[in-house]
Design goal:
The complex is a heterotrimer of chains A (496), B (519) and C (495). By secondary structure, chain A is mainly alpha-helical. Chain A contains 20 helices and two strands. In chain A, β1 and β2 form a beta hairpin. Chain C has one domain. The longest helix of chain C is centred in the middle third of the chain and has 33 residues. The chains are: A mainly alpha (496), B mainly alpha (519), C mainly alpha (495).
Amino acid sequence: MNYVELLSAAAPETMVVLAAFAVLAVGLFAMRDVEPAIRRLIEVMIGCVGCTAAIGWMVALPQHTDLLGGIFVVDSVIQVVKIALLTLTILALLISQDSDFTKHVGEYFALILMAAAGMMFLVSSEDILFIFVSLELTSLCLYVLAAFNKGQEQSAEAAIKYFLFGGMSAAFTLFGLSLLYGLAHSTNLAEIAVAVRSAGLDPLVVLGIVMTLVGFGFKVAAAPFHLWAPDVYQGAPLPSAAFIASGSKVAGFFITARVVSTGFAGQLPNQALPAGWPVWASLLAILAAVSMVLGNFAAIVQTRVRRLLAYSAIAHAGYMLLGVIAQGTPATASLVYYVITYALTTLGAFGVVAIVQQQTGDDRLTDFAGLARRSPGLAVCMMVFILSLAGIPPLAGFFGKFYIFSAVLQGSAPGMKALWLVAMAVALSAVSLYYYLQVLKQIFVVPASAEKEIHFRTPLLQQVVLAVVALTVIVLGCAPEWLIHRLTGVTAVAGL
Amino acid sequence: MPLLVINMPWLTILTLIPLACGILLLCVGPERKAFARNLGIGASTVSLLIVLLLWGAFKSASGGFQFEESHQWIPSLGVRYHLAVDGLGLVMVLLTALVVPLALFASWNIEDRVPFYFGLVLLLEAGLFGTFTALNFFHWFLFWELSLIPAFFLIKFWGGPLRSGAATQFFIYTMAGSIAMLLGFLAIFLATNEFDFNELAKLGPGGLAASFAGKVSSVDPKTVVRMAFAGIFLGLAVKVPLVPFHTWLPSAYAEAPTGTTMLLTGLMSKMGVYGFLRILLPIFPEEIRWVLTPLLWLTVISIVFSAGAAFAQRDLKRLFGYSSINHLGYCLLGIFAVATPAAASVAPATERVAALNGVILQMFNHGLTAAALFWFAGLLEQRGRGLRGIDDFGGLRKVAPVFCGLMGIALFSSLGLPGLNGFVGEFLIFKGVFPLASWAAALAVIGLLITAIFILGILQRVFNGPLNTRWSAWPDLTQRERLLAFPAIALMFVLGIYPQALVGAINGTVVRMVERFTI
Amino acid sequence: MLPKDEPRLVRGFALVTALAGLACAFCGTLRFHPGAIATVARTRWIPSLGIEYYLAVDGISLTLLLLTGLAAVAGILFSWNIETRTNEFFAFYLSLIGGVYGVFLSFDVFLLFVFYEIAIIPKYFIIAIWGSTRREYGAMKLALYSFAGSAMVLVGLIAAFVLSGAKSMSLLELAKFPFPHSFQLWAFPLVFVGFGILAGLWPFHTWAPTGHVAAPTAASMLLAGVVMKLGAYGCLRVAMTLFPQGLDPWGWTVLGLGSWRDVLSLLAVIGIVYGATVALVQRDFKFVIGYSSVSHMGFVLLGLMTLNPFGLMGSVLQMFSHGVIAGLLFAVVGRMVYDRTHTRELAQLEGMSLNTALPFAAATFTLASIASMGLPGFSGFVAELQVLVGAWHAYPALSILTGVGVLIGIAYSLRALLKAFFSDQPASDQTVPNSGLQHLELSPISTPERIGATILVLASLLIGLYPRLLLDLIGPSFGSPLFDGLRKCVGSSWS
């Protein structure tokens, strides 16, 4: 295997890393004395250029490689996911262009780009060791990103919680993965699958699978491993929170899906378990159910929008886990569709929250009062995002839910046996409308109190970005065919 | 008659004229009193003329339905626009056309919201015409209900002190009956897919039950027919009214303004009896026979009880109200008696014919007489400054001889004195009923006796006796009022002496009815 | 998007749009061949899931489209006086109407569901922003109940879609598919009740009185008039078409009920009687009308359950009839009376002698009450007549109970009419200052109100006297292939 091959396969990641370095370099050497706003602008531009180049490369020169026995894999579906990740990174960068909570601008953006690179490596791997390494790379960057706002205690608290939880879950993951390695004598997922199939219900295998899933569950904020999420969503600086909420979800779910479907797929349905499901499916079902219940009900009582979004993220993680449980092309395609549109929507929502928090100083529900009068464009964008999260047609969120739920029931496993799960998901989704409407109620119905008659100063760039995202959400909801078609195609090819 | 005239849809026109004028008047402002009164009288006079025209063109010998109009209306529901009159219908329409102008004249003194009042009366007239000419249930029911609404408002707005309660009670009671009737007819429709009275009558006895077979799940066809019968019976019984469904009547009659009461007693109560004749008798003969004895008992009780109650009344209007129940009870007696199975009595068909002739005559005559009586009672109340108790007056003969004379004639007619119209109907009814259901007729005579007593009582206390000094300045009937009363009183004499005028028209119809009936 | 300070422009635009919609419905009706299913638009939307953008009409849809057009125009006419945030109001209103039109036009189940959900959010905002009594609570309750109902429907739909091979969501295709009997036995009640919540099925009706009272007049007219019909339409078009075997007898009885059909008929009749009885004791004028809507919708649901051509025709006709009548009732109560007197308490209205102060309103409400009572001459009579015929066939005992319900209906209508308009006593509510017979100077009824009221009254009268206009559309529709399964149902009576 030669390095040229490796380089061309990993070109996008390389570009992103280079961009990160460039940002750092520019910040350190050239722009010490430049005004922060301009500095941010330039560095964001550099980052965007890097990401765009990476996307361009992938679009122009699609690859199919499998290097080093599964350590680095590139195929169509992975490229689609990477393109999505890069888009989210670009958007996160653009949203953060206005944030002034830190002097270390260069480091900040560099860390975002590094995290993005880590995620890209994460989704490209079919080797558990490499998966773990990329996971750690991403996580470490995200921990630091969460702590970046040194002026606020909340940021530090969030980061510590994130780090401690993350470290513990990394331990779980490693433990589980090592058990699997011990069983299969290989770090390649396909070979692990073979070993798992032949091992049946060996307690060690079960333990290994469970541990691994626990670790991944933490990553995607599924209950009961979600305890870090509300604090991080609330306390971390907004762009970090936005990025964590969107990018890491995409990567996390994709890799969970891959591990489960490629690695554990061999496990036969076991008659000893309820519904005759494989072990991992039962576990994930429980996780999904608990996430949906906890996320939705806890969100009802929230008074701060960011925390509300955190609990809603937990609930959505529950829905997405359904897509992981189900096997087959439709299920995986639907999962990718859902997670991508969800990430876009959350990013947009965080973008709006960023602007509001900037102007009013806080993100309580009451701070959103009368937003319709103060900034109609922003209000409409937020309405699009919130309604998409709630699952109202014709927005992308509704279609994603529909797609995932029907995909779960299709196919042989688990098929109609999962009907109770789907029913539960739909029912809880109905409950969620209540707290989403609370936000919209503040925005549209409640008149702004007199003291807060601030004329909203919305930076043009961010408005444009948010409008574009909102438009995308609407388009993806009204005409999802294009995306679905692509996803179904590439997923089928990848054999997922 | 020129062909063109015959072929016009007279019955539709008959109904439309009061309907259109009524609606017009409702939209007019309250200041235009003279216009309203004139239009009201005009419209009802035109209707009277049309009816007389029809009377002239009517071929009484055949006894069948004439001036028939039949068009498709709602085919999917078996609803046709089917109007026609036979002898019975013609007589009822004539009665309507006569009483309404009288009622309007009696209401000449109303000052409050005159166009509204006259408009409502015209709508009521339209409702009556529609009901008496309808041969399809939908049309019948439409006008049946249509007549309720103006009556309600008439009582509610221009009535006496207790009018709200009276009006509401009247409305709810009648509506309850109507709903029962509706349900009954719907059941029939379900079985036969017919709403047409003639078609249904053609099914003959037992035919109705047969057509129910298999159509209603879980219930025996005979039971369903009986339920339908009960519903329709209820609806009609409330209207007549038949004891014990009569409790709305005394208050309604007492509280309503005079003109309205004339309409209520003269016409609306006849709708019920008409319904018995047109619907219940031809379509449900079996069912009537099934409950014949209880029905006869009910009728007898109704006759005797109402007479007794009238006797106990002090308020003249309430008294006459109970008396109405009594008089109409004779009609029902006749109808039910006719339904007696042929085997149970040896009476030939002539008795049945007599009874039914009597029923129809009684309807007409009572309509006329009761309307007149209430008008006189209204005059009493007016001149008596709101008093209308039997004991409030006395010796009026001395100060208002014409008034007492005319009212006396009306009272005697109500009593059934031979020579006046009231006698003929009752005589024929009893002539027919005695052979068919002797015991019932015998008991009903008690009613006659009690009626005689209280009518004489009125004569004694109101007209004779010592003059109550309060009324020494009692004005007699004015010229106009005498002019008004004259036709009614004259008719009472004419029909008393020459009932053939009416019987000639209806006999053919009655014979047909009985023929179809006798098995 | 229109300039904020030109309410006249906004209103005019909205009115023109609504009229255009009505005109389209009319033209469609005139060119329609009864019994057919006429396609309006059909394109592939999401082929991977077999979803099409498939709009079509049959007689039933056309009837409801006409109703929507009428209600929309009347609603806008009655909202002529809204001054706050006019743009947004009409924007939400028109989007609501758009959603409703979409539901009635959709022949693809997914599309139907999409439009159904789209209609929920504008409702929330209209009530929450422009409503009156407890508007935020009422709006939220309505939104959540609707959403819960649609969640139930969604589960059923997804299951049906998957079971049928996930190839198509077209109504015709799914109707033809033979779903397993056991599946239909639970999918049917799920979907029916899901739609039924919006139709005011007892005991899930509690959102209706609160929501209707909280809503501004035009929204109440639309809510009671049209949106509740969305639910009933869904029951008919989706639940009964796709899962007709769900109505079959279970094979065992509990409390005398042997099938979902029995249960739902009983619930419908309970709704009729309960709604009427509760309306009888209300103190707030608008609540009377709100509960009367629940009662009238019971007729619709009962008619659906009779599985009899008369009952079903009556059900659809009642949808139309009640839509118009409810619109009238709410218009009078909300716009004509409340906007002027600022009270809806019957006890207070008693003393205001409204029949002299607002004669047009009194006359309109009298006609509307007569129509609501189901007296012949108006459309309600024909509809209720047909439903009762159907009920006699299927459930004679229930039809008698329904008759009782009609009587109670007459009672509460009369009570409300007399108390609000024709009372001669001073107000029974002595706590209000100035009670005693008042002769108020109230602003006269404006021209848009008159036009709106006239349109609705004439519509009801026209159909009441010549119902063929609609019955000829509705009747043959039940012969289309869409209703094959329904016609073959156990216990249905098609000759």
